[in-house]
Amino acid sequence: MELNELKNIWKNENKKLEERIKLNENLIKKMKMDKTVGAYDKLLKVSIIGRNLALVYCALSVWMALSFIEEIKFSIPATIGALAMLWSFISHISIKKPDYNKVSLIELQKSICNFRMHTASMAKYDRSIVFLWLLTFAPIFIKYVYNVSIYSNYKYFSIFCLVSVVYIILMVALGNQVYQKYEKQLKQSETSLNEIIEFEKM
Question: Of 7, 109, 112, 153, which has the highest C-beta tally within 10 A?
């Protein structure tokens, strides 16, 4: 076999090897990208559903308040709960799902970072608003369904207070775990994107 033939064979083999390496690199990058987008998209959907539910809860409180408009001990708290949920909806209106097919890696990383900071800054407010809404909605709901006023019945009022305390404890304990998990997942997504960006620079 001549030297030129050996060179050609070597070049062809080398080219095939480079193509396989490039293909493997692209597959790895795609897998990391799919995993990152999947985790972020899941958290984003949960937040958007929660935001939209806030508007539903607001409407429920308004309807209940109007149903008992003459009984201010029920209607005023329900109205306060409705306003709190409306504020929650408005404060989360900036959350939007990006077009993953069009957004760049840098823009996606910025989007995840902004979402992470927004979630962290709103965590304590979200839990407080949920508790305030339940605190204002439960009495009027019990009155509507069972025609019982917990404000004029010591037994029911005591049970309501006890349930409220238990709920606060559970909400604080479980809420911290949930938001810490969100924070961890979003940070991992940011790190993965940064690795992909650095990988593309190579």
Answer: 112
pTM of the model: 0.72
Helices within the chain (DSSP H only): 3-67, 72-91, 105-146, 154-201
**Separation of alpha carbons 140 and 148, rounded Å:** 9
Q: Which amino acid is at 75?
A: S
Question: For residues 43 and 197, what is the distance between their CA atoms, to the nearest angstrom?
Answer: 22
Domain boundaries, position 84:
3-201
SS3 202: coil
Nearest to 133 by CA among 65, 187, 39, 45: 65
**pLDDT tens figures, 149-200:** 888 888 888 888 898 888 878 877 776 676 677 667 667 666 665 655 555 5
3-state secondary structure (DSSP) of residue 160: helix
Amino acid at position 7, single letter: K
What are the structure tokens assigned to 38, written together? 């999947």
Q: The tokens of 104 are what?
A: 């760049």
| Rounded Cα gap, residues 113 and 195, in angstroms | 15
Q: What is the 3-state secondary structure (H, E, C) of 62-103?
A: HHHHHHCCCCHHHHHHHHHHHHHHHHHHHHCCCCCCCCCCCC
